[in-house]
């Protein structure tokens, strides 16, 4: 097979060589102007695809950062609201102790009652706090309307029990503000597991000051009634009214039975009863309402005053549990805020790694690019020189 070298073929090759060098120089000029190696995807399709994937991950990290900022704001506002609520409950405790002073007059107790009502209204306002964007902090996922409202003089919860989880870093979630039902409504009475009360209609002066478990025995979870047959004797009755024990009593002495311990002051009368059993739930607003009710009781007789003191003592225990609930809620919120800080560190570390990888893929090495540009420029000049010389070549020049 014969291969012929023609002037047209050599011309085409020279033009192709110059155009390819010119194209490479144009690409290098764009890279030098933008500072980017990947000006278009065709510069390096594999690297461009990888870079797009990294951009997507960086955008997700930015969104997670926005999520974290939003939930951090809500948790911070929850902390502020709960701190104020705790201060209000401290004031309730102070007022209750003040009201339990026998030296107070009826008018004094009415003044205390009025302040307690004001504290209740302030607590309701805190329970309906917003996050600054029109969403309510303590409504759970149903946070578009006030979660608490007054119905027939009682406070009801209109939100739900959902506590949202928010992703704040890849695979890392934190919990949003607690639903208000868990903070203000579902509060255990008594000591949190056991509660006691004086029966309505007691005629003596026995005041139940505390009820708790006795560490020397195990309580079976049942309810019992301590019924006094005289000022210094009592019987223990189970839930069915069957006697399960009894004993003698002297003022200030603890009554211990079935793994339980009751502390009484004063002298009960025959027929007086005190009940003890599993603690129930009572919302903080009802607790304050009971205090107001106690302060407005008629205390004309010693039995009435004793009934008032029993109600005040019971309310003091409930206020203590409500205060603990606020502290627990603040602790839970603080743990979530700490998790947000840790998530920020993780996002920052991931972001730095991704940006470094993107820089290696996209950012131009100016020294290398300038060297390549000079090389391509020299190659283009050489190709132009060869093309010029080739144009002047002719067989006629050889035979002259």
From TrEMBL:
InterPro entries: Flagell_FlgL, Flagellin, Flagellin_N. Its main location: other. SUPFAM superfamilies: Phase 1 flagellin. Residues 54-81 form a coiled coil. One of its GO terms (biological process) is bacterial-type flagellum-dependent cell motility. One of its GO terms (molecular function) is structural molecule activity. Residues 5-142 form the Flagellin N-terminal domain. Transmembrane segments: none annotated. It comes from the Bacteria. GO terms for cellular component: bacterial-type flagellum hook; extracellular region. Keywords: Bacterial flagellum, Cell projection, Cilium, Coiled coil, Flagellum, Secreted. It is found in: Bacterial flagellum; Secreted. NCBIfam families: flagell_flgL. Belongs to the bacterial flagellin family. This is Flagellar hook protein FlgL.
């Amino acid at each position: 097979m014969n291969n012929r070298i023609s002037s047209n073929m050599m011309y085409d090759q020279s033009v192709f060589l110059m155009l390819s060098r010119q194209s490479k120089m144009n690409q290098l000029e764009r890279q030098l102007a933008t500072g980017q190696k990947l000006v278009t995807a065709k510069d390096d399709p594999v690297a461009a695809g990888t870079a797009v994937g990294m951009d997507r991950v960086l955008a997700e990290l930015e969104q997670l950062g926005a999520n974290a900022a939003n939930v951090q704001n809500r948790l911070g506002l929850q902390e502020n609201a709960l701190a104020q609520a705790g201060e209000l409950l401290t004031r309730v405790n102070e007022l209750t102790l003040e009201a339990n002073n026998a030296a107070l007059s009826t008018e004094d107790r009415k003044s205390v009652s009025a302040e307690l009502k004001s504290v209740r209204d302030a607590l309701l306002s805190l329970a309906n706090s917003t996050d600054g964007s029109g969403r309510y902090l303590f409504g759970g996922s149903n946070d578009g309307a006030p979660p608490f409202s007054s119905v027939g003089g009682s406070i009801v919860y209109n939100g739900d029990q959902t506590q949202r989880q928010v992703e704040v870093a890849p695979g890392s979630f934190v919990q949003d503000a607690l639903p208000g039902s868990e903070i203000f409504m579902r509060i255990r009475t008594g000591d949190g597991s056991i509660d006691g009360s004086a029966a309505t209609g007691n005629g003596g002066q026995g005041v139940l000051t505390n009820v708790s478990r006795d560490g020397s025995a195990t309580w079976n979870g049942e309810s019992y009634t301590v019924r006094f047959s005289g000022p210094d004797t009592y019987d223990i009755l189970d839930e069915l009214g069957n006697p399960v024990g009894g004993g003698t009593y002297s003022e200030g002495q603890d009554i211990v039975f079935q793994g339980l311990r009751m502390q009484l002051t004063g002298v009960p009368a025959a027929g007086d009863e005190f009940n003890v059993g599993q603690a129930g739930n009572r919302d903080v607003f009802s607790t304050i309402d009971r205090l107001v009710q106690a302060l407005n009781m008629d205390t004309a007789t010693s039995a009435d005053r004793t009934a008032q003191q029993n109600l005040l003592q019971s309310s003091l225990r409930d206020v203590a549990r409500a205060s603990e609930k606020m502290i627990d809620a603040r602790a839970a919120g603080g743990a979530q805020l700490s998790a947000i800080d840790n998530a920020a560190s993780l996002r920052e570390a991931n972001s730095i790694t991704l940006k470094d990888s993107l820089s290696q893929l996209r950012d131009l090495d100016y020294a290398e690019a300038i060297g390549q540009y000079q090389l391509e420029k020299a190659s283009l000049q050489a190709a132009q020189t060869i093309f010029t010389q080739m144009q002047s070549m002719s067989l006629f020049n050889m035979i002259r």
